[in-house]
Design a protein that fits this description.
Elements lengths: L1 H4 L9 H32 L3 H47 L1 H13 L5 H14 L1 H10 L9 H25 L5 H24 L3 H30 L1
Helix pairs in contact: 2-3, 2-7, 2-8, 2-9, 3-4, 3-6, 3-7, 4-5, 7-8, 8-9
Length: 237
């Protein structure tokens, strides 16, 4: 009934997991696009040959995917460990201090506009069913059936990084050497715009803001690395 009345609101039990995977995928894709494209432009700006450019791009793609996966796994694992510790602590408090926990839940329910008597009765009814779930949701904002998954985050982060990095790599391979830098920059900016738009649509936020944010940041990164590569090429020539 709720999902019918409010179809745009995320009420599914796996909402947190989907948001976590979406976050990892968007971050991975953006990082793959920008970091590999920026590195390629920096190497192109230095004036080295095509073989060195491709080698640097491949190394950045592989190492970046591994780094993103490991970083997401460690970060999300730490978050999950923290959530599990809080769940264990709340379970222990319910077993050892039921009266205090009942009073705490009554206070939380009363803060939503219930009278103290109604809140107390509701707390007793909750205690007869699943008090742990209620305390976790209201007190800590945790759903014990929808904890963050480090493996999902690591997988989507690595896959999306590879997908993002593939775009500037294809541009550098397919474009003629004289236009390689322009091709990488154009493909990167278009890809960032699409990524920003898609992520905003999935998250139901303003697309224009997300697109502009990625385009401005991406363009700045490309310009800086190309400039550094060019200066380095001049210095060693």
């Amino acid at each position: 009934m709720v999902s019918t009345i409010h179809p745009a609101e995320p009420h599914a039990a796996s909402h947190n997991s989907r948001l976590n995977s979406l976050r990892a995928a968007v971050l991975g894709a953006n990082d793959g696009i920008v970091s590999v494209a920026a590195l390629l432009l920096g190497v192109v700006g230095s004036g080295v040959g095509d073989k060195a450019i491709l080698t640097a791009g491949l190394a950045a793609t592989v190492s970046g995917a591994v780094s993103m996966a490991l970083g997401e796994y460690v970060s999300v694992s730490a978050q999950r460990d923290s959530e599990e510790a809080l769940i264990a602590k709340e379970r222990w408090e319910l077993e050892e201090f039921p009266d205090e926990e009942h009073a705490e839940l009554t206070g939380m329910l009363a803060s939503y506009g219930m009278t103290p008597e109604t809140a107390s009765r509701a707390a007793y009814e909750i205690a007869d069913n699943n008090p742990l779930d209620a305390h976790l949701r209201l007190e800590l904002g945790i759903d014990d059936e929808d904890l963050t998954n480090p493996w999902h985050a690591a997988f989507w982060s690595a896959v999306s990084f590879l997908g993002g990095a593939l775009l500037p790599m294809l541009a550098i391979v397919l474009a003629p050497s004289s236009a390689a830098g322009w091709a990488v920059a154009a493909v990167t900016l278009v890809a960032l715009a699409l990524t920003g738009y898609i992520s905003a649509r999935l998250a139901r936020t303003a697309p224009l803001r997300a697109v502009l944010r990625l385009l401005i940041g991406g363009a700045a990164g490309l310009a800086v690395t190309f400039g550094i590569g060019t200066l380095f090429g001049i210095a060693v020539s």
